[in-house]
Model the fold of this input.
Amino acid sequence: MDFLKLVENNVENLVVVFIILTSIFIIVQVGVLAGLFFSMRKLAFGVERLCTDVEEKVGPTITDFKQVLGETKDILSNVQGATENFASISEAVKYQVERVNAVIEDTTDRARVQISKVDEVVTDAVQRMQATSTIVDENILVPVREVSAIIRGVSSGLQVLFARRKNQVDQVHQDEELFI
Done:
C-alpha cells in the first residue's frame, strides 16, 4: 500500500513537473514570437521612414537639378543612380523580409512539433493514471471490501451468539402483566 502511495505521489510529481515545463516552454515561445513581431514592426516603420526620407530628399533634388542644369543627360544619370540605390535598398529589404518569414515559419513549425509532443505526453500520462486507478481498484479496494464484509458478518454472528438472553420466567411474567 505504501508502494502504491509512493507511485501515486511520483506520478503526481511528474505531472506537476511536466505542467511547469510545458508552461515555461509556452512562455518562451510566446516571448520569441512577440520579439519577432516587434522586430518586424520596427523594420516596417524603419523602411517606411527611410522611403519617406529618401522621397523628401531626392524629389526636390531632382527638381533642382532640372531647373539649375537644364541638361537632360545629367538629370538622367542622377535619376539612374537614385533608381539603382532604390533597387538595392528594395532588394535588401526583400532579403530581410524573406529571412524574417523563414524564421517565423521555422518557429511556427517547431511550436507545432512541441505542442504535438506535449499532447502525446499528456495523453500517455492520463492513460497511465487510469490504468493505475483500475489496478488499485481491482487489487486493493475490492479485497478490502470483501474482508470488511466478512468481518461485519462475523461480528454480527458473535453479537447474536453472545447476546444476553432474558430469563424465560421473567418473560412470561412480563407477558402476563401486559395481558392484565
About this structure: The CA atoms of residues 62 and 152 lie 106 Å apart. The mean pLDDT is 83.
